[in-house]
Amino acid sequence: MKLANGLALNSHPSGRHFLQIPGPTNVPDRILRAMDYPTIDHRGPEFQQLGKSVLSGIRQIFATSGPVVIYPASGTGAWEAALVNTLSPGDTVLMCETGQFAVLWRKLAERLGLTVELIAGDWRHGADAQAIERALAADSAQRIKAVCVVHNETATGVTSAIPPVRAALDRVGHPALLMVDTISSLGSIDYRHDEWGVDVTVAGSQKGLMLPPGLSFNAISAKALAASKEARMPRSYWDWNEMLGANANGFFPYTPATTLLYGLHEAIAMLLEQGLENVFARHLRHAAATRAAVGAWGLEVLCADPGEYSASLTAILMPEGHNADALRKIALERFNLSLGQGLGKVAGKVFRIGHLGDFNDLMLLGTLCGVEMSLAIGGVPHSPGGVQAAMEYLKDGI
Ligand SMILES: *Cc1c(COP(=O)(O)O)cnc(C)c1O
Q1: How would DSSP label each residue in 223-237?
Q2: Buried-state track 58-94, b at ≥16 Cβ within 10 A, e below 16
Q3: Cα(116) to centroid of ligand 1, in Å?
Q4: What's the CA gap between 45 and 76, in Å, rounded?
Q5: What kind and span of H or E run contains 19?
Q6: Atom of ligand 1 minimally distant from the CA of 152
């Protein structure tokens, strides 16, 4: 939309941008300030203190007492690291097609020369632990070396329960490693690396951890570490061995993303101050309020199983004949609100509301107001009253 002076409405926006995509998420002022600091010598004593502090603090966020490796990379790098550190050329991995992120992880595995056995999915459900159990039971030759699951499928807003997947491996007595992508759930949705028996947990900085993009993580079990000693996939930059050697003293084998580590230090402090249980409860509450709005609009959530609703984002189906990207364009141009686009095979069919990270009730209501006004402007069939329904939900607490 153009103003009288010919400028686009948001060419000089006032107030803040509503970044309600499911990552990158809003970076809180406290973290921005913590990063506003000169770069220091990454081989000096000041850095060593920072390194030791973040390498130990991050373990609490993964709920692990084992090592967590931190890469200066996006989440995709940590996907690759999980595979190349533990597997050998030609190995088979079992993956579940929960949505676009599972599809991308699969593509990465295939490009690395791994054989992927895929459990197909309809993009409206999570990983099927029974199907995983059947696939493992059928694998009497134990060709499957790893089971890879996306905990929170960011393309669909579906969260897969991890303990049933662990139980499936245990019931069959299959020795495959369990790898879990928590890029859009860590620090937002309850997750326990040790207790759930996960071997490699993959995460990234720019979602629940409230940081800018640029860091990613592997939490590593003793079994995964042992597997890395035998694994023959070529690796250099991603090599755990080199990382863990340097990390023992708080250092890194190459230049770390020092500025992001200042931010990580602050993010860990903020999450622990709030208490992870409270952080998880806040996300569940905002997800429920969002669904109350969606229901009142008469629209449908993509996730088909209420037991699998994501707490960190909601994907919403557009009515037949209406394009989600046209709606997103209105929200951006008129209200300076970024909504998540549909990815892969649901492109144009869904839009996504990210309600994760540094987020509160009024930010959610502002977001839902922007969506409701955009639905009206775009002529998308809906009932008004979604914002009202969310208000009713939020004011009654929990
Ligand atoms: C965002 C995301 C990724 C990709 O991470 P990048 O940082 O973009 O490489 C992978 N998996 C999930 C579940 C994600 O949400």
Answers
A1: HHHHHHHH--S--ST
A2: bbebbbbebbbbbbbbbbbbbbbbbbbbbbeeebbbb
A3: 19
A4: 31
A5: strand 18-20
A6: 13
Gap between the Cα atoms of 218 and 71, Å rounded: 8
Please give the C-alpha separations between residue 375 and each of 122, 326, 339, 386, in angstroms, as whole numbers: 27, 10, 13, 11
Burial of 118 (0-12, 13-18, 19+ CB in 10 A): middle
Task: Give the residues surrounding ligand 1 with Cβ less than 6 Å away.
Answer: 23, 74-76, 101, 150, 154, 181, 183-184, 204, 213
Count the neighbouring beta carbons within 10 Å of the beta carbon of residue 251.
Answer: 18
For the stretch 40-98, pLDDT in tens is: 999 999 999 999 999 999 999 999 999 999 999 999 999 999 999 999 999 999 999 99
What is the predicted pLDDT for the residue at 329?
98
Which structural domains are found in the chain, ordered by start?
Answer: 18-27+275-396 (3.90.1150.10), 29-272 (3.40.640.10)
In total, the chain counts a number of residues equal to: 398
**Greatest CA separation for the chain:** 72
Residue 249: alpha-carbon gap to chain centroid = 29
Residue reference for tokens 């009730």 = 361
Q: Measure 7 CA to ligand 1 centroid, in angstroms.
A: 35
Q: How far is Cα 145 from Cα 132, in angstroms, rounded to an integer?
A: 13
Distances (CA, A) of 162 to 42, 66, 195, 345, 391: 37, 19, 11, 25, 32
Where do we find the tokens 């593509």?
107
Answer yes or no: is pLDDT of 340 > 90.
yes
> What is the predicted pLDDT for the residue at 206?
98
Distance CA 74, CA 63 (A): 22
Handedness of CA 66, 72, 78, 81 (dihedral sign): negative
Atom of ligand 1 nearest to the CA of 213: 7
